[in-house]
Specification:
The structure holds two protein chains of two kinds.
Chain A lengths: L3 E4 L2 E4 L5 E7 L5 E8 L3 E10 L2 E4 L7 E2 L9 E3 L8 E8 L7 E2 L3 E5 L1
Parallel strand pairs in A: 2-11
Antiparallel strand pairs in A: 1-3, 3-8, 4-5, 4-9, 5-6, 7-8, 9-10, 9-11
Chain B lengths: L4 E3 L2 E5 L4 E6 L6 E7 L5 E8 L4 E4 L2 E6 L4 E6 L8 E8 L10 E2 L3 E6 L1
Parallel strand pairs in B: 2-11
Antiparallel strand pairs in B: 1-3, 3-8, 4-5, 4-9, 6-7, 7-8, 9-10, 9-11
The chains are: A mainly beta, B mainly beta.
Chain lengths: ~110, ~110
């Protein structure tokens, strides 16, 4: 079954404590991206990756890092989380440019 | 980066009625996609329409695209309570720093009353 998985699904943490949200896909897609969703703001892209070792900033990259060492995984790293990073995070994958995206189930992050 | 603007922000209808929501944008696009999101869950792709297409159908969904007016509409016919969700348009611009990954609007919240 084609899947995009994210872990953890829910996380409550404290300011400054480094965390990683994992994203994994089994569809052999080249394109992967991270979004955050906040009330009234819709989805905003954080980072994207067009292939292994190729990543680039989206619209709101500050405070985040990513890596793409293998095709199936695209982790999102918050080196020093702050309360303004409290949000719902989605990973998405796509077969290539101009194609539909497949979304993971989301990770609800609360930073206190 | 360009963001689509969905209209209305919220829509409340009775089961069996049709629901129409619109998306407007400002600059040229490669394609426009519509997604559905049930509360707090991941987005699900509904339809992709390319800039050289004018209309597409998928089951009870009909999407139109008018590139001269820079707008698209999503029509859900004979709506059901299960259609209650937020609907987003996503734009794939011709260029975005070398990437074609779409950007999303803020969505239309649809409530279908049984």
């Amino acid at each position: 079954e084609a899947q995009v998985t994210q872990n953890p699904r829910y996380l409550i943490t404290v300011t400054g404590k480094k965390l990683t949200v994992t994203c994994s896909q089994n569809m052999n897609h080249e394109y992967m991206s991270w979004y955050r969703q906040d009330p009234g703001l819709g989805l905003r892209q954080i980072y994207y990756s067009m292939n292994v070792e190729v990543t680039d900033k989206g619209d709101v990259p500050e405070g985040y890092k990513v890596s793409r060492k293998e095709k199936r995984n695209f982790p999102l790293i918050l080196e020093s989380p702050s309360p303004n990073q409290t949000s719902l995070y989605f990973c998405a994958t796509s077969p290539g440019p101009l194609y539909e995206q497949y979304f993971g189930p989301g990770t609800r992050l609360t930073v206190t | 980066s360009q963001q689509g603007e969905e209209d209305p922000q919220a829509l409340s209808i009775q089961e069996g009625e049709n629901a129409t929501m619109n998306c407007s944008y400002k600059t040229s696009i490669n394609n426009l996609q519509w997604y559905r999101q049930n509360s707090g869950r991941g987005l699900v792709h509904l339809i992709l329409i390319r800039s050289n297409e004018r209309e597409k159908h998928s089951g009870r969904l009909r999407v139109t695209l008018d590139t001269s007016k820079k707008s698209s509409s999503l029509l859900i016919t004979a709506s059901r309570a299960a259609d209650t969700a937020s609907y987003f348009c996503a734009l794939s611009p011709p260029h975005k720093g070398g990437s074609y990954i779409p950007t999303f609007g803020r969505g239309t919240s649809l409530i279908v009353h049984p």
